[in-house]
Amino acid sequence: MAEDISVGCIDLGASSGRVFAGRYNGTTVKLELLGRFPNAVVATRGGLQWNLFSLYNSVVDALVGAIKRNIGAPGSLRSVGVDSWAVDYGLLDHSGRLIGNPISYRDPRGKKTYEALKDKGFLWELYRRSGVFPHSFNTVFQLLSDDISRCDGVSSMLLIPDLFNYLLTGVKGWEYTNATTTSLVDSSGLWDYELMNELSIPTHLVGEMITVPRVIGSITAAADGALEALQGISVSSIPSHDTASAVIGVPASSGEFAYISSGTWSLVGVELADPWISDSGYKHAFTNEGGYGGTKRYLRNVMGFWLLQEVIREYALEGIELDVPTLTEMCRLETPLKFVIDAEDPTLLPMGDMRGRVSAMSKTITGQCPTSPVEFTRTVLDSLALSYRATITDIIETTGRKIEVIHIVGGGAQNDLLCQLTADATGLPVISGPVEAAAFGNAIVQLGVLGEVSTDLDEMRAVLRSSISLISYEPRAAMSDVFADAADKIALNKRKPEGF
């Protein structure tokens, strides 16, 4: 029997990182966890920064450790691919050295330049050209706030997965799906050099756009030999925005589906052949981000489990240790939709006092506010389902798209209460899984690059469907009016999205 083909999948999220071996036996793909490690911003005098080198060491340790245990030895680990969160970047000097740690999108520094362009009425122009909705954390506003035009020593800007590829191989590249989140790529998928010149963003910061997944190089040992055990393994440039990889991992068999990539953020959208740029799309804060094979991810950002992660973090600072699975079980018997918030409200983006902001918003909307960990949990889960309902409704309104089923992938897929609430809120069947959709998407594309599977998206998804177990949820008719009433309350108090 032939040996399995193995690829290394590096999946970096805003709250944790994971490294998997993706194993293909000619029929199915299975994931084997090689390492899992936390990721968090560090508050410094330079702002909220990512501890990049801690992440990098964790990735390398996971890969080297696997090889030492004879899991995915160099001869069998055929390739490595990296996906991560979007918009953040590292800057390289002319010697190719990294200039400091990347600053997090949760740092408020982009707000000032965002407001300046908003005052000039330029936000619609950004949307018209790129199809990407102008949030204040987008790369373009970060670059403007960093005043890169005055930094003579900067030679390149690399988004996080491109930066990891560079650290492993020494090869610079700019992968398409993540590049589209910068607002510096036009709707046809090319760098908008005219816009960069207009905004005084140096065009030499970027280079060749990698639009088709391919091998970009191989791992080369560092000066101290730190990567020697990995030397020679290919590094593939795959759809490197973690949501782009997660959408590939959606095990859909029909074109009439919506997806929710549920993690620290919830990305709620549909897959389109072409960008959908319209007044109504702008009004409803929809973005057109790059997807596999030239597709577009027409989606809206919802805060996601960030809300609950912050609540749990705040309790931990008081010596109270909590976890999501336990809280979810405890909140099942709470009155549904007693407390609700608008989970798309931009005031929930920053760190700090999440309980205070959630309580105040619920008080405004419902006249009541949560006070216990269990009540906060139920508030977040109910409110996420309501935001999913609103987003799906707006997708149908703006595109005319018919939606027959919702696929929930990512960490939220293992929260069965949220999945059921989503079915109840939307009135649509929900299919959950896989949890590690980004890693599955990462793996299947690498296998396509290596010629082991078809590169056709439908055929890739067929392989994934045969590889995983799925759970279905049907909407409960008795919950329809309850969710409709709660949705009306939020609509009466809803803020306009950023950009208005």
What features would you describe in this structure?
The chain has 500 residues and is an alpha/beta fold. The chain folds into 2 domains: 5-243, Nucleotidyltransferase, domain 5 (2-Layer Sandwich); 252-433 and 470-500, Nucleotidyltransferase, domain 5 (2-Layer Sandwich). The chain is built from 17 helices and 19 strands. The strands form 5 sheets. Strands 15-16-14-13-17-18-19 form a 7-stranded mixed beta sheet, with helices on both faces. A hairpin with a 2-residue loop joins β4 (41-44) and β5. The mean pLDDT is 94.
Sequence-ordered SSE layout with sheet pairings:
Layout: E1 5-12, E2 16-24, E3 29-38, E4 41-44, E5 47-50, H1 52-68, E6 77-84, E7 89-93, H2 110-119, H3 123-130, H4 139-146, E8 154-159, H5 160-169, E9 174-175, H6 176-179, H7 193-198, E10 209-210, E11 214-218, E12 234-237, H8 242-248, E13 257-262, E14 266-272, H9 279-283, E15 287-290, E16 296-302, H10 306-317, H11 324-330, H12 354-366, H13 373-399, E17 405-409, H14 416-426, E18 430-432, H15 437-449, H16 457-465, E19 471-473, H17 480-493
Parallel strand pairs: 1-6, 6-12, 9-10, 13-17, 17-18
Antiparallel strand pairs: 1-2, 2-3, 4-5, 7-8, 11-12, 13-14, 14-16, 15-16, 18-19
Helix pairs in contact: 2-4, 8-15, 10-13, 11-13, 13-14
Short description, anyone?
The protein is α/β, with parallel strands linked by helices and 500 residues long. The protein is 36% helix and 20% strand.
CATH superfamily of the largest domain: ATPase, nucleotide binding domain
As laid out across the biggest beta sheet, the strand order is 15-16-14-13-17-18-19
Radius of gyration: 22 Å
**Assigned CATH class of the largest domain:** Alpha Beta
Shape: globular
Report the span from N to C terminus. Answer: 61 Å
Low-confidence regions: none
Largest sheet: 7 strands, mixed
Query: How much helix, percentage-wise, in residues?
Result: 25-40%
| Number of separate domains | 2
Q: Figure out the total of helices.
A: 17
> Which CATH architecture of the largest domain would you pick?
2-Layer Sandwich
The average pLDDT is 94
β-sheet strand percentage:
15-25%
